[in-house]
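Hi P.,

Sorry for the delay on this. The queue was packed all week, but I finally got your sequence through. Input first:
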Amino acid sequence: MRGLTIQEMKVGDSASFAKTVTETDIYLFAAISGDFNPAHVNEVEAQKTIFGKRIAHGLLSAGFISAALGTQLPGSGTIYLGQNLKFVHPVAIGDTVTATVTVSELNVEKNRATLETVCTNQNGDVLITGTATVMPPKESE
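Then the structure:
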């Protein structure tokens, strides 16, 4: 199923993707990315950090933004062109991260959309903020 074209989108449109982060997710992300930072995979060492416990990789959580863009808004066929991120609060094992994307600007001539991105946890704490630039699918695709 094709996602929304730029003509079908409007400023203010919003969508979300949510996932509860598990220990398995963290180990799989470490294996795929090669990031075995002890803050993520070693409880004893992580207890010595400012967080006092293991935390999820920031880019694991940011990946949920990609899921929202690629499956919700604009959806299937979207090309992710760019993203800026600010990591505000750590993600712990068991947190449910909700990535919300909101259309803030549309450039119909260039087929580009800008979306504000924010990830929050189950308590409403802001985890990540940023802005994404995407190329929505075209009608002929």
